[in-house]
Specification:
heterodimer; A: 622 residues; alpha/beta; six-stranded parallel β-sheet; 19 strands; globular; B: 268 residues; mainly alpha; 10 helices
Chain lengths: 622, 268
């Protein structure tokens, strides 16, 4: 079932819905409204309020329209109105074709049904026509991995196995428009992955109205987005802009709540807290402020506006938390922090960088204070939460403020003794980067908003027991998308190590995935493998080893990119151009050019020549 | 007055889809009710049999059938009671089903009409047992059915629609206050005894007047006569009642569509 692109599938005009929050009163009103009819919509009775007021939205075929709002802002009311589960008190809804509600839950299940019967019931409740119902059931059972259990009673099926059926069915039954009441968050198990893939496919197809409180997992293409709060539409605009405004809004709202809580909890109310509580800005004001800082619809302008606004305030600024890939931190985030420092200068209120790996030295001279994530959370907790963040968001990049980020921001603010700090989150930068990578923003934006500086005072590694008491070359190899695990690449690693160890001592920095030293290398006694597995100071220790080396050779990406910042001559290899992100390579070269110290080269393994590498090492050792 | 509008352009869900949904909701209800019972579906037979037997005994003892023979009265009372039971099942089935689907109605866009379709399905299921009971009663009474028996089959959907017309109105009301559910059984003896279902209508007196003005008299008595005796002369009145109940049913459906979302909103 597919409507032509451009067909208006949903037109809501001036919708209002009144809600009575008091249960007993609500029942009395319900009976009266059923039997007699309700009074005029603009006249509220006792305990009544507007759950939604003058809400308008249009969804055309192929579009993804997003409604963002905190809990109890009116999103579910919209979903219920559009799917005819509730009646509007005012306004009109015009629907073309069929509307389906995407949600999970044990829909109409009772323990005496068989799994096959339950799936049929779910298909029917989701509106499957009899001629497609059986195909939908088969598809859902296959997606959830339960095809062989049709005859099993629901009593004998684990709850965990059932959890995706309703969600999968709501994505499978043909509909013209789907209404997502919240973003589905399937787990990492095989069935969950298949359901998540189906969600992504549905987002790609479009014709969706997505109602969500979080920006994690939103589709990449959003036609329009609205921000609702207390039933009122506060903002309507393009997807990227609205998402950025909403995140800013959520952060500010949480801060305001915390300020109010802090003021309320204190036995003697401090002056700062009481003044902050005295006049908190309204949600509409917060949205207006965030919108004002946009200066146009471009995300790039938003980033600049947000930074300028934060720097102009007299509150402390938190930069981060940075919990993503180390290469992204080195190539993009740290240079952006350096640009902010160079452009806006020092400030009286503190500027605090939050990152992980005990990398204080990287931010020395750029910020007034460094806070490590492991000062705020135990390392194991951080690791688990960060993995969950990546899994939930589908990417390691911090394009949105995740729950983990929010928690770290709160903890940092507490540590600073404030409840109202300005935040420049990595998402501010990476939203622009994604536009640059897609070609929507010129790539010279990065050059204009980055300062590539070497680490201020690279720590030497001499004090480390694992380091030889003679000059050494550091090496770090692991397999990734641009250097996949193959016999050829393993041979390259061994050739490199063999060539290097014939000339000089070699220290291999092993972050846990080094393929190993082949026994065939005759000079293997000159190769020392230093295991620096996941620890809370992993990045600092890696940087120390690299900073103390005469040269560095390794796989392109990750910790290898520390080398140019340590003024260490660097030679990186890759095998598959398709797996290499050209923007990262370009920025790496820009880093090397800007630092102007060491030689820096990136070589394809097909062009790799051990003799040439030997010459390069000899040259750098002189 | 409050009231926004909801308009659908193009194809919505079909009648086949509604009937399929009704079928699956009936299945869900059966599984829930009868798989929890050791005797299972036997209860579907036991209930009407246990209901009609004492009435036949009492009716015979007090000459409810006038000058009818005992066996003739037994068949008369059984036929009437089972038709009444079809009517009453139609009244209460939708709200039984709807009460058990409260949570689903709150969570999912389930069509309000689906409980009516499912209610009709439940009635059909029970009616299959009633037919079997009546056939057995006819065999025991050694009575051959009259030629008008096929007319009863045509009357059957009209009796169901008559019951659903009342039951549909109660569905949203029972969502809000259980008083409507508790009060509904009180209506049962009133309706049963104000129509000449278990007795022959008297010629005169208050009961004769009540019988005459009660539409149930014609809705049940006429098909029952077709089943056990033949034509009655009240066929035109029966037709008029059928049209009236049909109109009531249509209004009931409109009421259900308007009122059920309001009732669901009132749920905790």
């Amino acid at each position: 079932m597919c409507a032509h692109t451009g067909t208006a599938l949903l037109e809501c005009d001036d919708l209002s819905k009144i809600w009575c929050g008091e249960f007993q009163q609500r029942r009395k009103y319900a009976i009266r409204d059923i039997l007699v009819g309700a009074p005029r919509h603009d006249r509220l009775r006792a305990h009544e309020r507007f759950a939604l007021r003058d809400f308008s939205v249009t969804v055309q075929a192929g579009e993804n329209v997003v409604v963002l709002g905190l809990p109890a802002s009116g999103k579910t009311t919209i979903a219920r109105l559009v799917t005819q589960m509730s009646r509007p008190d005012h306004g009109s809804i015009r629907v073309t074709g069929r509307v389906g509600l995407v949600f999970s839950g044990r829909l109409g299940a009772n323990p005496f049904l068989t799994l096959g019967e339950y799936v049929q019931l779910a298909a029917s409740i989701h509106g499957a026509e009899p001629d497609v119902a059986q195909a939908c059931c088969d598809e859902v059972l296959e997606m959830t991995g339960l095809s062989a259990r049709r005859q099993d009673s629901l009593v004998s099926v684990q709850k965990g196995d059932l959890r995706y059926i309703s969600l999968a069915m709501s994505l499978t039954v043909p509909q013209d428009l789907r209404v997502f009441d919240g973003l589905p968050n399937p787990g990492a198990d095989p069935a969950g992955v298949r359901v998540a893939t189906r969600v992504s496919e549905q987002f790609e197809r479009g014709s969706n109205l997505i109602l969500t409180k979080t920006t994690d997992g939103l589709p990449s293409s959003i036609s329009r987005a609205l921000i609702v709060h207390d039933g009122v539409t506060l903002y309507q605009g393009g997807g990227d802009t609205a998402v950025a405004i909403y995140e800013h809004f959520v952060y500010r709202m949480k801060r305001i709540r915390k300020v109010a809580e802090a003021a309320g909890a204190a036995s003697h109310v401090s002056e700062a807290a009481s003044s902050a509580q005295a006049d908190p800005p309204s949600p509409a004001t917060l949205i207006a402020r965030a919108t004002k800082s946009l200066d146009g619809p471009k995300v790039a302008s938003l980033a600049e506006g947000q930074v300028a606004q934060a720097w102009a305030s007299d509150r402390p600024i938190i930069l981060g938390p940075f919990v993503s890939d180390v290469a992204l931190e080195l190539l993009y985030w740290r240079p952006f922090v350096a640009w902010m420092r160079a452009t806006f200068g020092p400030r009286t209120a503190p500027v605090v960088a939050v990152s992980r790996g005990r990398v204080d030295a990287w931010y020395a001279g750029l910020v007034s204070e460094y806070v490590d994530v492991c000062d705020l959370l135990p390392f194991e907790t951080y690791q688990t939460r960060n993995l969950k963040r990546i899994r939930d968001g589908g990417t390691a990049k911090q394009r949105v403020i995740s729950d983990l980020d929010q928690e770290l921001l709160d903890a940092t603010a507490r540590r600073l003794g404030t409840v109202d700090a300005e935040v420049i989150h990595p998402s501010v930068l990476f939203r622009v980067c994604s536009k640059i990578w897609s070609g929507a923003v010129p790539s010279d934006w990065l050059a204009k908003h980055a300062r590539y500086q070497p680490f201020d005072s690279p720590s030497a590694a001499q004090s480390m027991d694992s380091v030889p008491g003679e000059p050494y070359v550091a090496a770090s190899f692991w397999f990734n998308t641009c250097f996949p695990d193959s016999r050829r690449h393993r041979r390259v690693v061994n050739d490199v190590l063999s060539e290097l160890s014939r000339r000089v001592a070699v220290v291999v920095v092993d972050a846990g995935s080094f393929p190993g030293v082949a026994p065939s290398i005759r000079t293997s006694d000159r190769i020392r493998v230093v295991a620096l597995g996941p620890t809370e100071d992993q990045s600092r220790e890696q940087a120390k080893l690299i900073a103390g080396a005469c040269a560095f050779v390794g796989t392109f990406g990750g910790a290898s990119l520390m080398a140019p910042f340590c003024n260490v001559p660097t030679s990186l290899v890759f095998g598959e151009p398709a797996g290499l992100f050209p923007h990262h390579v370009a920025v790496s070269h820009a880093v090397a050019r800007a630092i102007q110290g060491p030689s820096f080269e990136v070589t394809k393994t097909a062009d790799f020549d051990s003799a040439r590498l030997g010459e390069w090492v000899d040259r750098t050792l002189q | 007055m409050r009231g926004g509008t909801y308009r659908r352009v193009g194809r919505g869900q079909s009648l086949r889809q509604l009937l399929q949904q009704g079928r699956l909701l009936v299945l869900r209800d059966f599984r829930f009710r009868y798989r929890q019972a050791y005797l299972g579906y036997i209860w579907a037979v036991a209930r009407p049999v246990a209901g009609v037997l004492p009435l036949i005994l009492v009716g015979n003892a007090f000459s409810f059938g006038g000058d009818m023979e005992a066996a003739e009265y037994a068949l008369f009372a059984t036929g009437g009671f089972l038709m009444w039971q079809v009517f009453w099942d139609s009244v209460i089935s939708p709200q039984w089903l709807a009460r058990r689907l409260r949570r689903t109605f709150k969570e999912a866009p389930l069509r309000p009409e689906s409980v009516v379709a499912a209610g009709a399905g439940l009635v059909l299921f029970n009616a299959s047992f009633y037919v079997a009971i009546f056939v057995l009663a006819s065999v025991l009474a050694r009575t051959a059915p009259p030629s008008t028996v096929w007319l009863t089959l045509l009357a059957f959907p009209i009796i169901v629609i008559g019951g659903l017309a009342i039951g549909t109105v109660f569905v949203p009301l029972t969502f809000v206050y259980l008083d409507f559910r508790f009060g509904l059984p009180l209506l049962s003896p009133f309706l049963l005894w104000t129509a000449p279902i278990l007795y022959v209508s008297p010629e005169e007196g208050v009961l004769a007047v009540v019988n005459r003005w009660n539409p149930l008299t014609y809705l049940i008595n006429v098909p029952r006569q077709w089943l056990v005796r033949g034509t009655t002369g009240d066929e035109l009145t029966f037709l008029f009642c059928a049209v009236a109940f049909g109109a009531l049913f249509w209004l009931g459906l409109r009421f259900l569509r308007r009122a059920l979302p309001l009732a669901v909103e009132s749920l905790p």
